Amino acid sequence: MPTAVTTSPPSFLASLSQYESYEATPVIGTIFPDRTTQLSQLVEASNADELVHDLAVLVSQRGVVFFKEQDLTVEQQKRLAQKLGELTGKPETSKLYMHPISRLDAEFGREVSVITSKTAVNKSGHLTRSRASGGWHSDNTYEQIPSDYAVLRMHTLPGIGGDTLWASGYEAYDRLSPAYQKFLEGLTATHDGSIFNEHAKKLGIEINTDRGAPENSSTEMVAVHPVIITNPVTNLKTLFINRGFTKKINELTTDESENLLEYLYRHISENHDLQVRYRWQPNDVAIWDNRVTLHTATHDFTEYREGYRVIGLGGKPYLDPNSTSRRTALNL
Ligand SMILES: [Fe+2]
């Protein structure tokens, strides 16, 4: 069952109120600055289900939440990513994501992606792009069942640089005029992950067809989702397109679709007051809701950077016409 949206952020979530936290910006991001607040203890606590449920609600409200200097093991990270979704009502068949070009002999199993600067530059196509804003995306929206929550721990970082930015889909929706919101609510978009088919071909490997949910088993990774969706945890509307994977607005002509998508991508990347930029310290953990945020890395560093990412799968994205917007819910 969807959890009702709260009108006051973290303090309402009783089980988390014992931990110090503050909002990174008015619209997105909450930081738990105290290094004694450890996710490892949270997931092992006797009331772990209550704590993780409240954490999931907070992440869905704030888009992304940060914890400093964490000792979370990979096993705990996997458990946390799965529990965040389970405790907020995701389908039983939705498990952790296994990437289409993940390998069976992956260091920590197929559910753990090693985010490494060794391959990131080539993978993101950064060298062929002229603008850093080209990297904005939500994870795996090309799947029938895309991600709900993602948990990333960055353990090795350059001395300076390598920040990650997140943008709020809630606020992106709220910034549009009522007429434009209504127009977008009647549209669907095609999300395309065929870039991974190309990668697989180059690497001479097969696409992994076991990707964490029975619906995600095709080698063709193309999905149609509404342009505006409702977050099932907060019951709030959010803009659900991204430059990384959204290729077409289905109800429009090619020219109209290209124009509209370009406008929406700029709407996200050029409104820096709906974004948060995070400067990592070693072993910081970010947890975000992929349904209501986009993110992008900053490739401005030369030293080695590496982290472990685990992605949970949610349900099929939908628009509930009776859901509302974040600003309306908060009386802003
Ligand atoms: Fe990502």
Helical content band:
25-40%
Derived structural class? alpha+beta
Number of helices: 9
In sequence order, what are the helices and strands, one letter per element?
A: EEHHEHEHEEHHEHEEEEHEEEEH
Chain-averaged pLDDT: 93
**CATH fold name, please?**
Double-stranded beta-helix
Shape: globular
The figure for the number of domains is 1
CATH architecture: 4-Layer Sandwich
Radius of gyration: 19 Å
Distance between the termini: 26 Å
Distinct ligands: fe (ii) ion
**In percent terms, what proportion of residues is strand?**
15-25%
Instruction: Name the poorly predicted regions.
Output: 1-11, 120-126
Spatial strand sequence of the major β-sheet? 1-2-3-13-5-15-4
Number of strands: 15
- CATH class division: Alpha Beta
Query: What is the CATH superfamily label?
Result: Clavaminate synthase-like
Let me know the largest β-sheet: 7 strands, mixed
Overview of the structural elements:
This protein is of the alpha+beta class. The chain has a single domain, classed as Double-stranded beta-helix (4-Layer Sandwich), CATH 3.60.130.10. The chain is built from 9 helices and 15 strands. The strands form 4 sheets. A 7-stranded mixed β-sheet has the order 1-2-3-13-5-15-4. A 3-stranded antiparallel β-sheet has the order 12-6-14. A hairpin with a 6-residue loop joins β9 (228-230) and β10. The structure holds fe (ii) ion. Fe (ii) ion binds next to loops.
